[in-house]
Amino acid sequence: MASQWYTLTPLDVLMFRDAKPFTPGERAWANGRFPPTGHAIAGAILAYLGERVTLRLRGPFLCFDEQLYLPRPLHLYQGEFLRPVNWLSETDSYRHFLWDYSRPIPLISGQTDSKASSKEKGFAYLPQDEILHLLKGESINLNHGVKEPWEIEIRPHNTLKEGTRQVKENDGYFVENCVRVQPGWSLAISVEIQDSQTGEFHPCNIPQSVTLRLGGEGHQVLVTPCAELQTQWQRLQEISQSNLQSNQRCLAYLVTPGVFVRKTNGISLCRAWPWEWNLAQPSNKNSRTGALVSVATDKPIPINGRTRAKNNEDLSLPAPQVFAAPPGSVYYLEYPTSLMQDNAKVNDRDNPVHRWRQLGYSEMLWLSNPFQEV
C-alpha cells in the first residue's frame, strides 16, 4: 500500500533544542539541527493525533515546488567521484598506496580543474531528477544543486529573579539558534500508522491545512498532502531496489542520518557505517570478510532521542544519546548487502534497532557503480 506524503511549511521560525553544547565557551547557547530529527517529527504528529500509536516515517527531506531535494552525496569532490584506491587501474600510481588495514580503504579524487572546484562550493542539495541520474550511474549537472535554503537567526533569552530586575544565576540567560526557511521551501515526509490489531501499516491521513507544533516556543508548520512526492519517491525506489538486487559493485547512499549503534560491555558505541558490514580487506586474516570497501562521510550528528530517565521523571538525561552518520554519506561495497535495521524481526525476535528505521533514520538509496570494473 502506498504511503501518504506531506509537505510541512513553517509559519514562522523554528527552534530545535536537540543537544546541550559541549564547548565551555558556548555553555549559554542552546543548539539544534535542521532538518529536524525523526524524533522531533514523530513527536509533533503524535501530539496532533493525541493517542499512543506506532508510526513509520520517511524523511524528513526538503521540498521546493513539489520536488524532492536530497542531501549532496559526499563522494562528490570538485565535480568528480571519489574512488577507493583498490578500484583504480593497475597502472595508477595510487594503486599501491598503504593505509591502516583496520579501517576502510582511502578514497582518491580524480583529475579536476579549478573551475570545477569553484562551481561546487556551497552545493548542499540535489533535486530528485539529478538523484535519478546518480542511481542509474549517469552524469549529473552540478549547476542544479542548491545551497542550504534556510538562515540561522540568533535569539537571546533572559529569565529574571522573582521580584527583582536581575538575571537568574542558573539558566537565567542563554542564546538560541532559530531557523528561518526561505520562501517556497518546506519539509517533505511520508507518514504511516500501524494497525494495533493486524500489525500492518497504512497511510496516516492528516487533513488539508492542519497545523502541527514543531520544535520549541510553540512554532508551527502547515501540513499539506502532496501526491507528487509519492510518485517521485516511487521512481527512486524502483531503480534503487534494482541496484540492490544486482550482484555487482555498488554504492549505498545515505539520505537521512544513519544511526549505527552497538552496546559493548554496557557502553553504546556509534560509528559511521553499520556494525554488521565487515571490511572487504580486513587487517586480520582470520576476520570475517565482508562487502564494505570504503566510506565517504563527514562529522557526526548528535541525536537526542529522550529527555527523561525512565526511573525518575525529574532527572534530565545528558544529550545527545547517539551520534549519527550525516546524510549524504556514501558506502562503497563489493556487492549489495542488507541493513539489519530494515528487519522488524531477527531470529524470530523483535529487532530493537528497527525502531530507528521506523523513525526515518538510516534511509539508503542504492547507486550503480559509476567506475569501470578493474
UniProtKB/TrEMBL annotation:
<dbReference type="Pfam" id="PF09700">
    <property type="entry name" value="Cas_Cmr3"/>
</dbReference>
<dbReference type="InterPro" id="IPR019117">
    <property type="entry name" value="CRISPR-assoc_protein_Cmr3"/>
</dbReference>
<protein>
    <recommendedName>
        <fullName>CRISPR-associated protein Cmr3</fullName>
    </recommendedName>
</protein>
